[in-house]
Design goal:
The chain is mostly helical. It contains 17 helices and 6 strands. The protein has 2 domains: 194 residues, SecY subunit domain (Preprotein translocase SecY subunit, Orthogonal Bundle); 229 residues, Preprotein translocase SecY subunit, CATH 1.10.3370.10. The strands form 2 sheets. Strands 1, 4, 5 and 6 form a 4-stranded mixed sheet that branches. The chain has a two-stranded antiparallel sheet with strand order 2-3. Helix 5 packs across helix 7. It is globular.
């Protein structure tokens, strides 16, 4: 446990970790602040009775806030949706593309537009939630969710949920800036992991009652451990392109002549594609609550355990894997930087030919990454449905939890290594590094 002592010896890292934990604690406390005018006990029974539907999926990503009818019931998904929209617009709208090329200043402007869009989307979704809750008064067999339906309740719900989403967005940005790890990802991580103890307890109770057979439990445990191993393997897998630096004279000294490599991750997009896909597939629910024609039929057809939903989810995941990789990684810029540093890939001409070669390699390894993400996010859910295990902790959730945990640990490791301390793996263990693809 020497790595804990090493963390304690670094004041900045210690402050960052404590700040991150404090912000996550604030988020978890806010889960239990109920929206005015609702009965959360009735809503909890409604959500638990539909654990495999979109309500269960929304409740999972909100960390249980939806069944509590908390001011955080919308979670961070409006921000994720707004990020999707502006990522798409950045690739097709020239003014936004020029802003992105301006560097940090341009990205600050785009992030500001994303915040405005988040507030608008949260207001729209909040109004949809208000209409949905009023509709549950007649449809629910557990009682009335809303005490006094009407425009006063709708406006109060929109104001409460929009404020809650804006506050979560602020928490995420503060964690990213002053804490450890990506704030938005950590908030989603905290929301998912909070349901784990309750799910395990419920699963253990069902095993004791004989409602879940031991063989089903063993298969679920085997699949879960196998999925974690696959996630860790692919998240650290890399394709390393050899790089040679030309010799050059600077004054009377000779520089260069060394060799290195350019690491290309198999999954450059990380956990973003399944989050984007899940967020988009939740959007028809909001439109159905607003009374948009045809959305009720679409919502019924695309239940999370149905083949239509899984097919669309796989297609969206593969698309967003390629799209987000193309946005985050620019082969032309990489080739230009290599040329400026007098570096080249053996047998490849510098400049355009290098950019085309890197683009071909990235396209090939991204296909493997996209297939891996789609398989990990769907196969565990299919097996859970086949064995009728009432423990909704599917592949998407598992990938988000493992991926965010690995990235956060790697950031802590980087802080320790920078200050010449042993990392989390210890003096004899391996560092958290990439694996050759």
């Amino acid at each position: 446990m020497s790595w804990i002592a090493n963390i304690a010896r670094i004041p900045e890292l210690r402050r960052r970790l404590l700040f991150t934990l404090g912000m996550l604690a604030v988020y978890r406390i806010g889960i239990f602040v109920t929206t005015p005018g609702v009965d959360r006990n009735v809503m909890r029974q409604i959500v638990q009775s539909q654990s495999g539907s979109f309500l269960g999926l929304i409740n999972l990503f909100s960390g249980g806030a939806f069944e509590q009818l908390s001011i955080f019931a919308l979670g961070i998904m409006p921000y994720v949706t707004a990020s999707i929209v502006f990522s798409l617009l950045t690739a097709v709208v020239r003014p936004l593309e020029e802003l992105r090329k301006e560097g940090e200043a341009g990205m600050r402007r785009i992030n500001q537009y994303t915040r405005y869009a988040t507030v608008v989307l949260a207001a729209v979704q909040g109004f949809g939630v208000a209409l949905f809750l009023e509709g549950q008064n007649d449809a629910s067999r557990f009682g009335d969710v809303v005490a006094e339906p009407g425009w006063a309740f709708r406006l109060m719900t929109v104001l409460s949920l929009t404020t809650g989403t804006a506050f979560i967005m602020w928490l995420g940005e503060q964690i990213t800036e002053r804490g450890v790890g990506n704030g938005i990802s950590l908030i989603i991580f905290a929301g998912i992991i909070a349901d784990l103890p309750g799910g395990l307890f419920q699963l253990g109770s069902l095993v004791q009652l004989g409602q879940v057979q031991p063989i089903g439990l063993l298969v679920l445990a085997f699949v879960g451990l196998g999925a974690i191993a696959v996630i860790v393997f692919f998240e650290r897998a890399q394709r390393r392109l050899p790089i040679h630096y030309s010799k050059r004279m600077v004054g009377r000294r000779l520089y260069g002549g060394t060799s290195s490599h350019l690491p290309l991750r198999v999954n450059m997009a990380g956990v973003i594609p399944p989050i984007f896909a899940s967020s988009l597939l939740m959007f028809p629910t909001t439109l159905a609550n607003l009374g948009v024609p045809g959305m009720d039929w679409l919502q019924n057809q695309m239940q999370p355990d149905g083949w239509v939903y899984l097919t669309v989810f796989v297609a969206l995941t593969i698309f967003f894997t390629y799209f987000y990789t193309s946005v985050q990684f620019q082969p032309v810029d990489v080739a230009e930087n290599l040329k400026k540093q007098s570096a080249f890939i053996p047998s490849i001409r510098p400049g355009k030919a290098t950019a085309e070669y890197i683009d071909r390699v990235v396209t090939r390894i991204t296909f493997g990454g996209a297939v891996y993400i789609a398989a990990v996010c769907t196969l565990p859910s299919l097996l859970q449905t086949s064995y009728h295990v009432p423990f909704y902790y599917g592949g998407t959730s598992l990938m988000i939890v493992v991926g965010v945990a690995l990235d956060t640990v790697q950031q802590i490791e980087s802080h320790l290594i920078t200050r010449h301390y042993e990392g989390l793996a210890g003096p004899s263990g391996p560092r958290i590094r990439g694996r050759r693809g």
